Amino acid sequence: MRQSTSHLLIGAFLAVATAITVSLATAATKYTAAFVTIEQIVFIQYLFCTLIMAPLLLRRGTQAFRTDHPWLHLMRGAAGWLCFYTYYLALEKIPLVDASLLRNTAPICVPVIFFLWKGIRLPFLRWLPVFIGFIGIASVLKPQGSLISFWHLIGLLSGITLAGSIVTTRTLALTEPTTRIMFYYFAFSAICSLPLAISKWQPIPLFTVPLIAGIGLSIWLTMWFYTRAYSYAKATVISPVSYSGVLFTGLLGWLFWDQVPAASALFGALLIISGGIWSVYLGRERSSA
Prior knowledge:
The chain is an all-alpha fold. It has 13 helices and no strands.
């Protein structure tokens, strides 16, 4: 019993570490984007992670790079790249807490993507948290109460593409080792981001180099913390704790940019987080299967 409780606490701690890492990287990106283009930041962060992962695979020989699912890896990389690109674009235009909320709609979007892509039919009860989450999304998308914000839609796209990344990762994980999945994710994402980075390239101020390196390292750390968290606790524990990232991000937005969440965003946050946690809870048996 003690060991079980200990593992639960370690898993929760790692989930909080994940949320804090993501929140700090979000704030660092918003600050750095005033001096370096988003396209450069996205490309450099993925190149940085690719250079970290390549030696880890090379230790196991060239066979570690062989895969029977190159197109699935490419889909995973493209979805992951688009997720971060749209997320960072949204950060420049909307409050941090709104962007974080919209990116965290991924658990709600996952059942929809599974249904559209693989035709997996889910019971009616499984769709209820999705409907609740989408009501919350509608509240966040209309911060002024009248017109839908374009940049909020871009933020929502980051959540949808993150869901696509999750679905392809789950599919790849059935046959591929984690290190190979991570390497091709970083490598293909770097390739996808290269053309835009070249077109928007500009001199990089020296003082931003540590920030950009930290942003790149944060992705690798986030994946490591999150993967380790799941080795100690179930998704029904990790997912609710992970939503604390919205709180941390909102706090940073308030402290450094004086961004106070609108009432519609707070209402939407309640519905999105409730729908996301409920969706994970209802999906635990199907995921185990």
